[in-house]
Amino acid sequence: MGAYAYLAPSNVSEALAALQREADAGNRTQMLAGGTDVLVQMRSVDRGERTFVDVKHVEEANHLDIGDDEIFIGAAIASAILFENEELKGILPGLLESSDLIGSTQIQGRATIGGNLCNSSPAGDTIPALIACGAICVIASPGGNREVAVEDFVTGVGTNVLSATEFLIGFRVPRPQGKSSSAYLRFIPRTEMDIAVAGAGVALTLDDSGTCTAAKVSIGAVAPTALVVADAATALVGTKVDDAALAAAADACSVAASPITDKRGTVEYRRKVVGVLCKRAAGIARDRAAAL
Amino acid sequence: MSKVHVSTSINGDAVEFLCEPHQSLLEVLREDLNMTGTKEGCATGDCGACSVLVDGRLVCSCLMLGVEAEGVELTTIEGIAGEGGLHVLQQKFLEHAALQCGICTPGFIVAAKALLDKNPDPDETTIRYWLAGNLCRCTGYDKIVRAVQDAAQELAYEA
């Protein structure tokens, strides 16, 4: 049963119909965005025949809307295109720097934030950044769109909440208001082209006195899925995000992490580094917010 | 298994081909269209030897399906030289001995052209980061960076 096939639907309803038709025929389907993970996996760990459903021609998945209250980022927009958008970079610096860290110039030209999330790697760089900025997944589903917070999307290593007849259209992100900003940092042994040993995304809001009134912290590559660290956010809120608050947030991240030892780093090392990354990312987010 | 008909543009020429749905653009270029200037290094997007431009944007042709070329404008290494001879980048790679075995060279030339099209006056750090997705195991990169800097200068004089 099955063979390779390729479909390029032009809108959500066509895409849903294609997924349903293939499922009814007993064919395996795979959504294709930038393809930078899919093609590598197809040549190595998973050569199974399937029907590719290309999301890049789905109109709704290419929308980028920067509204006063909310931003919509289509799942099919290449990272390089997002990073060239200076307005978006100013509003969501943490998210854009997380996607810009992934791969080479060549990869940036194809890879998407939507694809990074759907690949659902524990080390996906955009995932803690998406969680920190409060992004919500808009999922096309046979019964109509449904929404899932990014922190609830990934269910394990390489797995997520999408069924075979659903796909990710894009993200709704609340537009940061007032003195609000974000940052994402990861550690890799090289300067470029590597997979995170640990990563931390921080988004926070300051009042006019410089006191943190809201914060969200997420860490990656230190557990099967990216984690929300509520204790780290609590450590920042109500403070001037000073050294003591940063140290407390770092400790909370180190405690929350449950990493593994592999070729990229040991458990002890990752616990330590993820705290350092949280501390530095929070400092960057604080300085960015203060400058607004 | 049924082949897919694809209409595309390669180096300004309208091109049609049939390919398997899972064939990479790199395989189509090299094996079906006999355009062997684009090289296969790793086939996993790590080395950049297969770099081409898709609607002016630098990509690895090993990480793109041939069917995804439908309706786009492709530029390969074969389209870089003008009718009057080598592109300045190609000339400067020769002058600076920026190639030894040569397998990575088409990818570097295409990637460097994409950079200079976007940023005609890149500093060394910009060049090195832009070309981080192109691996060379012979030159040690310095000669490549010098060639790109020299080409940028020459293109600036020509402009």
CATH class of the largest domain in chain B: Alpha Beta
In whole angstroms, how far apart are the ends of chain B?
Answer: 51 Å
The secondary-structure class of chain B comes to: alpha+beta
Adjacency order of strands in the biggest sheet of chain B: 2-1-5-3-4
Number of structurally distinct domains of chain B = 2
Q: How many distinct beta strands of chain B?
A: 5
Element order of chain B: H for helix, E for strand? EEHEEEHHHH
Query: What is the 3D form of chain A?
Result: globular
Give the overall pLDDT of chain B as a whole number. 96
Which structural category fits the helices and strands of chain A?
Answer: alpha+beta
Tertiary shape of chain B: globular
CATH class of the largest domain in chain A: Alpha Beta
Main attributes of the structure:
heterodimer; A: 292 residues; alpha+beta; Uridine Diphospho-n-acetylenolpyruvylglucosamine Reductase, domain 2; Enolase-like, domain 1; five-stranded antiparallel sheet; four-stranded antiparallel sheet; 11 helices; 14 strands; B: 159 residues; Ubiquitin-like (UB roll); DNA polymerase, domain 1; 34% helix
What does this structure look like?
The complex is a heterodimer of chains A (292) and B (159). Chain A has 292 residues and is an alpha+beta fold. Chain A folds into three domains: 5-57, Uridine Diphospho-n-acetylenolpyruvylglucosamine Reductase, domain 2 (2-Layer Sandwich), CATH 3.30.43; 59-174, Uridine Diphospho-n-acetylenolpyruvylglucosamine Reductase, domain 3 (2-Layer Sandwich); 179-290, CO dehydrogenase flavoprotein, C-terminal domain (Enolase-like, domain 1). Chain A is 35% helix and 24% strand. Chain A contains eleven helices and 14 strands. A five-stranded antiparallel beta sheet of chain A has the order 4-5-10-6-7, with no helix packed on it. Chain B has 159 residues and is α+β, with helices and mostly antiparallel strands. Chain B folds into two domains: 4-79, Ubiquitin-like (UB roll), CATH 3.10.20.30; 88-158, DNA polymerase, domain 1 (Orthogonal Bundle). Chain B has five helices and five strands. Chain B has helices at 25-32, 88-95, 105-118, 124-130, 142-158, and strands at residues 4-10, 13-19, 51-54, 57-60, 73-75. In chain B, strands 2-1-5-3-4 form a five-stranded mixed beta sheet, sandwiched between helices. In chain B, strand 3 (51-54) and strand 4 form a beta hairpin. The longest helix of chain B is centred in the C-terminal third of the chain and has 17 residues, at 142-158. Chain B is globular and about 50 Å long. Classes of the chains: A alpha+beta (292), B alpha+beta (159). The interface between A and B is medium-sized, with 30 and 34 residues.
